[in-house]
Amino acid sequence: MKNLAVKIGFVLILLTALCKIPATAQSGNPLQFLSEVSQSSQSNPAFHNKTEKLVIGLPVLSGAALHWNANFSADYFFTENFDYSFDNFYTSLGKPGDAVAYATLPLVYLSHRNDKRTLSFSLSERALGWGNFDHEFLKFIDQGLLPYYGQEEEFGPFSFKTQVFRELAFSYAKQVNRKLSVGIRPKVLFGRAFYDIQNLNVIVHTDEDRKVLQVIPEGSYRISGPIDVQYDPLKGKTSIKTDFTAGDYFFKFKNMGAGIDLGFTYQLNKETTVAAAITDIAFTTLNYKAYKNTFVGSIDYTHLYQSSDSAAAYYFEPRAALDALTDSLPYKTTSEAFAQRRYELLPVTLNLMVTHRINDGMTLNFANNFTYYNGDANNYLAGYFNLLLGTRFELSSGLNLYNIKQVMPGFACSYTARGVQLYLATNNIARLVQPSKAKNLNLSFGVNLLFSTEPN
């Protein structure tokens, strides 16, 4: 865990494609079209449990989801021989990199319908990540310091934010009348880890008088988690050590937040239903074990190296050079604990949906999912055709239009037996079979156990 925060700041911003930050929110996912699956209510709390049974999701498996959107894929970082290459990443990207990811890992899920009411309860681990970076820094890492001696360069900005928190949610849906159903899902959030670095710049400066090359990071980052951060003014060094307590495994009441989801469905006529929902009107807080670290001074190099030619003199492997750089940063960082509580907003999603029933076994679905987070907006416009095959199998397939510029074929299906239900949904089936090439992918899957509550 040595130098944990600094390594995150430099490595994760650049190598997000390899880190594969897990992710969820239902934006752009056809799971919302599977009416037989109670987890479809994650996109709209007004959706009812249609199984008429007690639904118990298997921990970890039922409701697990991944949402990834970026302008690069994992294979940018590898050559054809699967060797990592910053040059290949730089050439393939060709512009500043950006990525956003959400994830959910379910721990407990329960849902039951009683007449015109549906009650649900869920406990899950959630994570989200957002970042962008100056791709020219990839070239700097690939070339090494030697080619930059005698020059003045500035790389940046670099920004990266990630949150990990536990969500405790209660959902209530009610059929108000024959046409209208409303739903609400209040949430309690428990912050577990947080990292945020905004607009970091790295300056490469040549000091001709001293014959040294200076690497100067400018900026600060905020960090919170099961850690203890101490600044030693005598050594001029910031140290970060692990500091786990029981609350880190269960609930962190000192970093509590709250949220709410709201939704409704309205039946226009016998064939057509409209629905709308806004989810994750929510915030987490930073107060306990939360610190602000600021970069100061420069890292001076008298022994320069190059990283582009392993057969030439002064070669230093790029990965090792980057690691050596991050090892030096704690000596150029000051730290102070938060003086007051901070609030962090979650990505907010607006979901609009229209369902048209063709007959008892066929429906057409149209939806628009708009998500806003940290100044970035993403939009999915989707059209899907649903088919019920008998009483057990439901199939949904269609197209997603991402940000009015990319078309992706999507697919979802569920199988409901007497006591178990299986489901799978993805908005980009072409990349599901080639995940290393995925720039956009939303994947959900699960296994539900079904128990009848009617007397024999």
Automatic annotation (TrEMBL):
Keyword Signal appears in the UniProt entry: yes
Recorded superkingdom: Bacteria
Domain DUF5723: 45-427
UniProt keyword terms in alphabetical order: Signal
InterPro entries, alphabetized: DUF5723
Signal peptide limits: 1-25
Protein name as catalogued: DUF5723 domain-containing protein
Organism, scientific name: Draconibacterium orientale
